[in-house]
Design goal:
The protein is built from 13 helices and 12 strands. The chain is an alpha/beta fold. It has 2 domains: 125 residues, NAD(P)-binding Rossmann-like Domain (Rossmann fold, 3-Layer(aba) Sandwich); 177 residues, NAD(P)-binding Rossmann-like Domain (Rossmann fold, 3-Layer(aba) Sandwich). The mean pLDDT is 96.
Length: 313
Amino acid sequence: MKILITDELAEEAIEKLKEKHEVVFKELRGEDLIKEIGEYDALMVRSATKVTADVIKAGKNLKVIGRAGIGVDNIDVEEASKHGIYVVNSPGGSTRSVAELSIALMFALARKITRADASMKNGEWAKKKLKGIELQGKILGLIGSGRIAQEVAKIANCLGMHVLVYSPHCTPEKAKAMNAELKSMEEIFSMADFISLHVPLTNDTRHMINEALLRKMKPTSFLINVARGGVVDEEALYKLLKEGSIAGAAMDVYEQEPYKGKLSELDNIILTPHIGAATKEGQIRAGVICAEQILKVLDGKEPDYWVNKDMMK
């Protein structure tokens, strides 16, 4: 069978697919993808390719769409389900990678690392202006309690942070397993020194971090988003950062990517270009797991990570 890959993947994943099927790599987007997708039995993507309803309708031979990663908001899962197309992903593949970025951004904010680097490269010795804070003893609020949030909690506990967690799906037992205290979202925003977001982008979570919620934060607190763009109201965040109502923020994901907005004008925010899963180890794990799911479908077997299972029954 023919498998189309439209985003860069780990070579280990591609080789796994090539063992059994014909594999073609082309960075196709929009109309170009629509024109060619009809030739293929499977499509494998990361986050850059938008698998729209039109793409799916044109995929007359498509049996499976694989996302090398966990988030599938770039795939029209409902449309795929209507056409009997499996949507599979690789949860857990990049968990550690994203969790470590969240922690890295906390350190960078706490110790003003990016500002220190920029000042040195400008020929300055701004030591007195760059006094930071320690993470030990600080309160970390996690919004979400999935795999990545659990991994962040594990690292934060080792750093001596006090962890709070909120999720509509988080039970007291689950919070206890994370060595975290279960709180409401409003309580977390008013109590935490650092808030790290770990939720998918849905109709319910879009702009869930709005101005009213951000205004509950302490003026010494920091917000980190390595989850999904659109979860945070970027206009509201810009407003509060500019007026100094919160100490700072770090963003790896944005409502529109590549990001070209005005948050880049501010010096109390760290911006990274959606690199959460971009580690060698994470990409290999995510790619190989996704490839295994695609192969199972093409072999007529049920995949382990089947996003639209309930929608196709």
